[in-house]
Each structure stands twice: as structure tokens, then as C-alpha cells.
Amino acid sequence: MQILIDEARLSSELETLATLTHVEPAANGTAVTRVVFSEDDLKARSWLKGLASKEGFSVREDAVGNTFIRWEGTEPELPAVATGSHIDAIPHAGMYDGTVGVLGGLEAMRALKRSGMKLRRSIELVLLTSEEPTRFGIGCLGSRLLSGALDPARADDLKDLTGEEGSTLATARKAAGFTGPLAATRLPAGHYHSWIELHIEQGPLLEREELRLGIVTSIAAPASYRYTIEGLGGHAGALLMPDRKDALCAAAEMILSLEKHALATGAIDTVATVGTCEVYPGAVNSVPSKVVLQIDLRDTELERREGVIRAVRWDRDEIQRRRGVTVCEELINADSPAQSAPPVVALLKEICTESATPYRTMVSRAYHDSLFMARIAPVAMIFIPCHQGVSHRPDEYAKPEDIALGAHVLAEALARLASEPGSAG
Ligand code: GLV
Ligand code: MN
Ligand code: MN
Fold this sequence. Notes:
By secondary structure, this protein is of the alpha+beta class. It has twelve helices and 17 strands. A hairpin with a 5-residue loop joins strand 2 (58-61) and strand 3. It starts with 6 loop residues before the first helix and ends in a 7-residue tail after the last helix. It binds glyoxylic acid (GLV) and manganese (II) ion (2 copies).
């Protein structure tokens, strides 16, 4: 039976989803900002649930808003085969990050249903809540809770960085209509037979090598920290230079220390970023008294990543002494790399080979919900080339035919996994 992906419909649904945003138009692409539980996010969720219901798929939501769209198999008591990704987008992002995995997954399920196949296992498309850390300071919130990687009690206390003083995940999710206990979001290992996420590459390799798809064999390990630097504020004219304990000058040294030590590993896989910097009191004529930095540090090797942060801490001690400031480090998360399951990777390779699709295996340097899904299921990811590797920008672009091809390979893989009697792992 033939699996036919409706490329035109998939592209038009991606375009429609991209209109559910609250952002200034960009000159160089489709700018999307869709912060979790914002009005746009809730509109996008209800539009997606409408598409699923129209197709006759059932819909379930958990206490953090993870949404499970299910096509029942002929043996529904067997663990389902799952796919999915996210629809939240960082400020001024593009329209493909996460969304191709959700809408591509939906189209893969619809194509399987249209083909008339009767599959043994159910197939579930999972929309995972807040893969991006924009609102609560930690990425992959939905998949962390679902896989048991985050303590539900700690999660409910996470500060809502975009909300009013005192607002937390608990208040934000309840306001969005997700009221149950977070502990109930947890799914046991073995709940899913297998998991495959379709995603844009967010790097340049596939396009550069003129390949149509990537098969991810491992996902780099991210860590994030918050550094609060406190010095001495005062009048920008009156506070004399020798008397200053300028928190922003100290923060600048911390940022450069991080860059220096990440570069010093000599490894292409070590990457470090300070993406936010809050300066208090934030007035041009006031010496900064306090600065809060958020640090994102990643590597494919855990020990090398730890080496960078250790070296930054030595510099921190020296900066504190020399400048008379205090630097407080808070660990937000430090995750381990994940490996794809060899049988799922082998299946994806087999499908690409049979269809003469040029592909390569690769590491994912970006993190994904699959990092956490790997804790409860055998996983793999399919990467789609994206133009010049650009992502997290309005000019992010993936070709419709590549997205459709990715959805096709996904559908083939879901069909074969859903026909299996045993475990894929
Ligand atoms: C995901 O968006 C990441 O930052 O890798
Ligand atoms: Mn992203
Ligand atoms: Mn993503």
C-alpha cells in the first residue's frame, strides 16, 4: 500500500501555523514568536487539535499541556509508536523549528490512514510543551516531566520569566487551563515502543553536502547556569572610578572567560553562549549594581563540558577577589547526551537506502525533546536540511519537498515499527 504525503497541504499548514504569532514582521523571512501558554500558543494548540479531531484521531492533554494525538492500532493494548516535537518558538524565530515535526508527524499519520493500512500498534503524535526555555528558563519542560527527568514539585515553582512578579509554572499552566497534578504527567519506561522526531537540522551540513536527510545517532548534552553578579551601584558621575565595584564590568569578564575556555577545548562540539544579560538598575547614569547572566553550554562529551565550567569557576574566584564583587552560580540543568537506538537508526537507514534518498548519519548539536524521550523509549531523529544552517531566526528556511520527504520517511518508519510485535530497543 502506497504512502502519499500531501506536500501542498503540509506547506500550507506550516504557513497557517506561522500566522499564529505575536511579533513585528521581519524583512528577511517569516518571524515567529510563540511563547508557551501565550494567546498565540493556545490558539495554535486548539487549531492543531481541530485538525486531529477532523481526521478522527483522539486527543488527550496532560497537566503541563503535552498533547497526545492518537490513531488506534488493531492491538491498542500494545505500546504505541510515537513521534512529535514542539510548536513554541523563541522570540523572533523562524517557522520551521519544531513545527515540521508536529505537522509533518500529523501528515505522516494521515497518510498512513489514507493508505488503508491496518497497523498493529497505535501511533501517537505528541506535542511537547515548552521545548524552548524562553518562559521558564529551562528547555524541554514537557519531555522532562514526561520522562521523569524533572521533579514535578520543583517544576511547579519554576519562575515565569515573562510574567508578573511571583508568577510561576503553576500559575501560568493553570491560567492556560492545565490544572492537574504535574506528577501525573510521568510516563513509565516502555510506555512507548519507540519514538522518532522529525526536525530541521539547524546546521549547514546536509545542504553543504547536497544530502536530502540526516539520521541522528546522538544528541549533544546541554547545561545551563544562571550567574548573579553583585557589586556596588551609584551615581555615574559621582562614584569615582577607583571606588567602583561595577557588576557589568565583572559580568563582561565572566562572559569572555566562558568564550575563552570553550574555545580552548579545541573541539568543534564545545559551544558556549551567554544569551541574556539583565542589568540593574538599568539606567544610563547609574553604575550597574547587579547583573544576571544566563549561560548555555553544550558538548557531545560530558567531561569536556564540565572542564569548561570548572575553568570558568577559577576565573570567577579571581574576578570576585580583584573586583570586590560576588558571583553566585545557580545550576539550571546539566543533562547527559543521548544515543539513538541502533535498531531505529538501522530502520531509517534501510528506508533511505530503499528509496535512494541521499542521507548521512550525524550528531545533533541542538537539543531536542528526543534527548528526554530517550530515557523512556528507543529513539532516533530525522533531520531535514535547512538553508545555510540558519535557525532561531526569521530567515530560517526548509524546502517543502525536503519536509515532505522527511514526513514520508517518518511515515514509512512508523508503519514498520507499528507492525512489530516486540520491543524495538
Ligand atoms: C533548542 O531550541 C536548542 O536550543 O537547542
Ligand atoms: Mn529551537
Ligand atoms: Mn526545536
